Protein 1
Amino acid sequence: MKRIRVLIVEDSKVIREFLEYIVEQDPRLEVVSAVGSAEEALRILTRVSPDVISMDIRLPGINGFEATRRIMSEKPTPIVVVSASVECEDLQITMNALQAGALTVLEKPVGTTSADYEALSQRLCTQLAIMNQVKVVRRHTPAMSTPRAERCVAPHRADYRMLGIVSSTGGPNALVQLLGCLGPDFRLPIALVQHITSSFLEGFASWLESACPFSVVIVQERMRLQPGKVYLANRDRHLRVLRGYVQVDGGDPVCAQRPSGTVLFESVADGYGRQAMGVLLTGMGEDGAQGLLRLRNQGGYTIAEHESTAVVYGMPAEAVRLGGVCESLPLPEIAPRILDLTFSKKEVACPNWLPQS
């Protein structure tokens, strides 16, 4: 069986050799090169032609964000950000790298004597193997028009009171575009599940708030919903919406996820029915699909990101297959559709959030 070719970019020689050791222990993977700077990685990228890249964030010279931006514009390759730090500056670089096209962020495994070593090492190797399957594309300024899918049902409007959004791989960039185009005057409360490594949750929430027109709240206890706020599940907790409230709990994982998008959508369906909207964005696997189906069956309006723009057309595809989708739309068309359905006629100038090539 052909092994997946991994390029490791890590400035610390000790950690670089440690990551090489971890990757080489996995029979699915092989290290084609391990370098100490982004400049060196860019020089050899075409020659070694890796299937996937393990990218550190804090590097001498070009940092991980700029390296990601250049790789995605010059030779698109799946990138897994591997970071040891959750300090503010590093988190900002990490989140910007996700926005620039990196697929996911993981904690850097520490020494073999650490209690977390086995779990972190296994997660790293598994994510490198999985992300190798993602067909990334060259990142340019988005076109003004994108192929549009057929609508499953005739559009309808209602007195909507709630919006639920679920995303996974490729989600941070999609969320910035979607929320930015909804605009600061959007008045529905927004419940959000984004699959992300739990130690990076606070940094993700802070970054998202700085990049979109809404305040972002990490839900730690029962809270009253307020219009124009984004509610994000606390680490390793399901997010559930009740009529007028949001809360978290430690129920069993669903679709191997906690928080689970299916749990969120099912609670939105039960609490709001036809007064709710659900949006399922890019992501691997099937989380959210069953929940979206329940929301649609209870009269809510459901939208899935179309294959033409989804970084990973896994979760949206499963929702379409189940019949849980009212409309399948390219990402740039989702926010305008939501605004149309909620009676907002104001023209919203969507900022260009994608990095320039």
Note: The longest strand covers residues 29-35.
Protein 2
Amino acid sequence: GVPIPATLGHEADLGILALEDLGDVTVQAHVQAAPADSHAALYRHAVGLIDLLQRRGQALASSAYLPYGLALDVEKLTWELEFFLEHFLAGYRGAAISPDARRAICQEFRDLTEELATEPRVLCHRDYHSRNLMLHQDRLYVLDFQDARMGPCTYDLASLLKDSYVELKQQTVEELITYFLELTRSHVCQTDFRRRFDMMCLQRNLKALGTFGYQATVRRNDLYIQHMPRTLRYVGEHLRRYARFERLRELLATHLVELR
């Protein structure tokens, strides 16, 4: 039920798929060009598709499908954070991290990933943001879902609402979180859900910085440098919001002035 581009043909031996052409208008492009009052309905639609993905994902769960055998577990979430250390902090920013500091940072990361990995798992797109959502003939379509896997129900929501490419007003973020909880008929405490959401945002944004650093230093692709300041600001917001992250903020702030 999730709208995706149609497959028009394929050549298995060559590894080629011919997909429906959805044009050029991503949600990112639309938000930058369209009046602000048109954004709310679009984002409510996008949040609704997350709910649909999770509900249909549960109904159709089967070991016959690859995503159900993959998970955002401790190992995967930790690998993503270590990728941040290697390719953003050390690689892009040139930080010389002492062995003691690295051990302390990794322990903080481990505490975060272990808590995230204990949450009940749902089907996640895994890269659900404004560049992977397209508008075509007044309909929203989802792209780039080949890394779908099981993970926390907050994962895709965090990707969408704390997007490195489009920044939403805080009031809009709060309203869309409430809307998601209404859609899912969740009886969880909203304060607790918001804490879990923020934790997921922190992990996700650190992971994004690792990807941006990798693109800049290894792939020699400077396109993502412009998105680093916003993503770093998100990280700082989440670290400062909770006392439990004060130690992690101090450790990272040694090398990142934005977190001081």
Note: Residues 31 and 39 are 6 Å apart (CA to CA).
